[in-house]
Amino acid sequence: MSEQREPQEQPEELETGNEAAPEADGDHPGEGDTEARLQELEALAEERRDQALRAQAELENQRRRFERELENAHKYAMEKFASEMLEVGDSLEMGLKAARETQDVERIIEGAELTLKNLTKVFDKFGIQAEDPTGQRFDPERHQAMSMQEDPENPPNTVVATMQKGYMLQDRVLRPAMVVVSKAPTSPNIDESA
Hints:
The chain has 5 helices and 6 strands, in the order H-H-H-H-H-E-E-E-E-E-E.
């Protein structure tokens, strides 16, 4: 019973301790503090709501901006490469014009070589490598076998000729090389009846 009495005594002490302030204000005990606290919490809640709305709007703006940038990246990804290729196209046009105006084969060959050199420079700049796998082991991931031929000088599955170069972009195959692959020579028929 004494345990029940102590909790009752404590609220009475609190009430008596707070009685002096309300008498001076003429309000009920603690009502002014509660009202002020409520207004403070409402202001804080409104501030947090405003911050959340601003953060949400900022995220939405960022999402739209990223979508626009991604769309432009897809749309104009080839812009640098294409502008570099214009120079190669110009070189080809000048070479054709020169070929029509002259019978000098050496000048035509020289122009074609310069154009090819220019094209190779552009390919190197953008990470495109030509691949001539002659003499290498056949790789079905990078080579396309067009035919097979017996070749006693090379082990089977060796590329003995490249019909068309392959091209790689960084580590990805753009176009496989078209190749001729060696196979083991067939043994002559042995006459078992003898």
